[in-house]
Design a protein that fits this description.
The protein is mainly α. The protein is built from 21 helices and four strands. A two-stranded antiparallel sheet has the order 1-4. A two-stranded antiparallel sheet has the order 2-3. A hairpin with a 2-residue loop joins strand 2 and strand 3. Helix 5 packs antiparallel against helix 6 and helix 12 packs antiparallel against helix 13. The relative contact order is 0.08. Pfam families: Proton_antipo_M (PF00361). Keywords: Membrane, Mitochondrion, Transmembrane, Transmembrane helix.
Length: 539
């Protein structure tokens, strides 16, 4: 209940700040660190209040859902429930520092807090798979921390640690390191392999991580400091396009149901980053907020279905749920929002971004790849619907499962927001000169039609299923290559010249030297004994 109260207060406060264009800064006394000014400040503006309003709302829904989730899951003990809730609360606290901080020191505090707490949540289940996924997630986030630490060097060179004075800096490498740090947390190429691996966490964690906290932290920093990153916007545009295309292709041929939803998150993150790189940071911000609602609803409804089949994630088993009314309702609405179906929550932001890109882009290839990636979004959304609720089941056709109404009490709140609030937010928060035009509406409908055509042509393509499922090349490029390379280096060093000059050499040395020491000390022991005996006799 506390999260919902905080959400309501911040919503009214954000509306006030938006219309009156005011920013409240809570500045503490500046601290001098090595003759540099490190002021600790908190910023309350429209972006931070509006975003944390919905973070609090979704966190409250996830906490209620977690209560039912842990009561059903037999693996959760009482101590596990307390630990799970505490870690989730730390997750929200870390997000608070990241969202409201206007000091680079507090940003780093919230950033590292999200990385550490996400590692604890991913390894919550005590098995080897969760540990491997947690290590991948943790190490990738540490790469982003390294980029932020490098940006600290340039901030120290400029003499300021507060974001108020960052506009005075003119270092290209500083902008580059900030951008690289942000895209590691948002799982952009080539740091995308950790996002499907993080699905090893419990479903409430996946709902919170993939909707409004961990993966959107990097996007939020790009929005917060968009006035600094104009020099790297073109590079950011290329990276986001590659991420959208890659995630869309993999989502169309993946068989793990939960990983398909994770790939959809990756695709939408690329969509947000692309909007920011085009200069439409407000549209990207609104899409990030809208995406948090329907993606958390999608994850929670998916988790409820997984409970009914004892945690199985095979997409072919999910087709046994075509008789589950509430599951079908919430899941279908989330998928419609995901593809940008007209007058759903995702439509109001996606169609504006699509229209603005097609009108303003001067590069035909970038526009083509962007439309193609949006077409992939429609295709895998239709695939989710067909896999989940097809009447002609693919596997386990003798199983018709019931559903627990307690799971869908919190999801109902997200469902109501998804169908009622899109027009309201776009009417009040968008500039007056941004209105829907007929070509923009037609472009959105064309993308929907192209996505449907692509789904019909790719559904039976087994070659693409085996080639593009499970993100085959990306984990190999990120982790397998480095581990295999280092193992080859260690093998060559340990079993060839390094072994001869280290282990074998020391072995031969001690093998020949130890008998010499034994004989030396034994002869000395006899000599010392005889010497003392002679002294005693002569005395």
């Amino acid at each position: 209940m506390t999260f919902f109260i905080i959400s309501g207060v911040l919503l009214f406060f954000s509306v006030y700040l938006f219309f009156y264009n005011s920013v409240v800064l809570n500045l503490f006394l500046p601290v001098l660190v090595f003759s540099s000014e490190m002021s600790i400040s908190l910023c309350f503006d429209f972006v931070s209040c509006f975003f944390f309003c919905f973070v609090s709302f979704i966190s409250g829904v996830v906490f209620i859902y977690s209560k039912y989730y842990m009561n059903v899951d037999k693996n959760f003990q009482n101590s596990d429930q307390i630990r799970f809730m505490c870690i989730l609360f730390l997750f929200v606290i870390s997000m608070f520092f990241l969202v409201f901080s206007f000091s680079w020191f507090l940003v780093m505090l919230g950033w590292d807090g999200l990385g550490v707490v996400s590692f604890l949540l991913v390894i919550f289940y005590n098995d080897s798979k969760s540990l491997d996924s947690g290590v991948i997630t943790f190490l990738t986030n540490r790469v982003g921390d390294c980029f932020f630490i490098l940006s600290f060097m340039f901030m120290y060179y400029s003499g300021f640690f507060s974001s108020v004075y960052l506009v005075n800096t003119s270092f290209f490498l500083f902008y580059l390191f900030v951008m690289l740090g942000a895209i590691t947390k948002s799982a952009q190429m080539p740091f995308s392999a950790w996002l499907p691996a993080a699905m090893a966490a419990p479903t409430p964690v996946s709902s919170l991580v993939h909707s409004s906290t961990l993966v959107t932290a990097g996007v939020f920093l790009l929005i917060r400091f968009n006035y600094l990153l104009s020099e790297v916007f073109y590079l950011l545009m290329i990276i986001s396009l590659l991420t959208m295309s890659m995630a869309g292709i993999f989502a169309n041929f993946e068989m793990d149901f939960k990983k398909i939803v994770a790939m959809s998150t990756l695709s939408q993150l690329g969509f947000m980053v692309f909007s920011i790189s085009c200069g439409n940071w407000l549209l990207g911000f609104l899409h990030m907020v809208f995406h948090a609602f329907f993606k958390s609803s999608l994850f929670l409804s998916t988790g409820s279905l997984m409970h009914l089949i004892q945690g199985d994630q095979d997409s072919r088993v999910f087709s046994s749920f075509y008789m589950s009314f509430f599951s079908k309702l919430f899941f279908t609405m989330s998928c419609l929002c995901l593809m940008g179906f007209p007058f759903s929550l995702g439509f109001y932001s996606k169609d504006f971004i699509l229209g603005s890109v097609l009108h303003s882009s001067e590069n035909l290839m970038i526009s083509f790849l962007f439309v193609l990636s949006c077409m992939f979004t429609v295709s895998y959304s239709i695939r989710l619907l067909m896999l989940g609720f097809s009447k002609y089941v693919l596997f386990n056709s003798f199983l018709i499962f019931g559903e627990d109404k307690n799971f869908f009490m919190p999801v109902t709140l997200l469902f109501l927001v998804s169908i009622l609030c899109g027009n309201f937010f776009m009417y009040y928060f968008l500039p007056q000169n941004m209105v829907f035009s007929f070509p923009e509406l037609i472009s959105g409908m064309v993308v929907l039609l192209m996505g449907l055509i692509f789904y019909n042509t790719s559904v039976n393509s087994y070659f693409f299923v085996f080639s593009f499922s499970s993100m085959n090349f990306l984990p190999l490029m990120n982790f397998k290559f480095s581990s295999n390379f280092m193992s080859c280096i260690f093998y060559e060093k340990e079993h060839t010249w390094n072994e001869i000059f280290t282990a074998k050499l020391s072995e031969n040395f001690f093998k020949n030297f130890i008998p010499f020491l034994k004989s030396f000390f034994f002869s000395n022991f006899i000599f010392i004994g005889v010497f003392f005996m002679m002294i005693i006799i002569f005395i």
